[in-house]
Amino acid sequence: MFISDLHIHSKFSRATSKDCDLEHLEMWARKKGIQILGTGDFTHPVWQEEIREKLESAEDGLYRLKKEYRISDGFVPDTITPRFAVTGEISSIYKKGGKTRRVHSLLILPSLEKAQKLSEKLEKIGNLHSDGRPILGLPCKDLLEMLLETTEKGIYVPAHIWTPHFSMMGAFSAFSSPEECFEELTHYIHAVETGLSSDPAMNWRVPAIEKMQLISNSDAHSPSKLGREANLMEIEMSYNGLEKAIQTGEGLSGTIEFYPEEGKYHLDGHRKCQVCLTPKQTKEQGGICPVCGKKLTVGVLHRIEELADKEEGYIKEGAKPFEKLVPLMEIIAEDMGYSTASKKVFEKYQQALLKLGTEFEILREIPLEDIKRQMGETIAEGISHIRKGEVQCISGFDGEYGKIKVMEP
């Protein structure tokens, strides 16, 4: 079983950590236990150069970091050598059907050569130098067409499809179905990314995407955020194996999910006014903030309710399983009473990896008795609550992350 995280960003994207270089991304993939990682930002010319310099070919269509660039800080489990798949995100802003559409798309390519070819085409449309996630006035259908012209093996996945401001089906600028977005090319779209603020069960309720594979990725803007969402894959280690899993579901065993309540756009509200509302409460308010009188930011749950034809709790036949996790540093921070940015929290996290294994092994597999012995009773209890799904959720809204409390069920 492989864990993959395909939607990430480099240091060349806006609002990302300077540590989003290949060396630190690879090191953190080892800490987490991720076997296949996206490169992110393949369109950025300088990042492309770094990828060429620091990665070498591994299995067909996959790459690995050259040994001379590998960081070993004494705490990183060396049980895996992560592979990289060539990936990137495009931000399309364009007019269609009398509305401004703002849609983010995840592209996955079979080689650096194909990535360069596609980049050359995109460079004629807009500036690829200023942002690792370029903003282009390019309709999604045209972007898909360009990908297909470049390579039949390219994968196009509408990214975090419910995010209010920048997604295919979010509340503000988006479409009600993939067909509205891609028209006659829709049959080339086989998967969608659920995003941090929704989980597969929420997506099963929506008829417009019932035939799509559901994948989950971290959209990490710093290396420590890798794997907050990921995919479980039983595939051969190759681009073909990856493509088959995403496009057909064969080999896609399930996903690892953030608690959707922790996502930044789960419920409706206004962050400035500290107003957080359920979809029902928003309807009662007529969509208007009771504090400032302006339009509320409609969240993911509300948008799904609008497009769903099945009740909450519906289980899709043949659906892939999923499991919800909380990042280990958040658990340690709650136990210690510090923030996740605390040096003491990071030191305890490092010790846990040294003594027990990768983060995913600690959260998912290692016996609780072993965790208790190395990390203390309350952390073991917290991980037990997560494994059983017994946590307290304070939902996120309007760009503010929610909180998951794990120490008391």
Automatic annotation (TrEMBL):
Q: Give TM regions.
A: none
Instruction: Please state the span of the N-terminal signal peptide per the UniProt entry.
Output: none
Question: Which CDD domains does this entry report, sorted A to Z?
Answer: PfuEndoQ-like (cd19067)
Protein's name according to its UniProt entry: TIGR00375 family protein
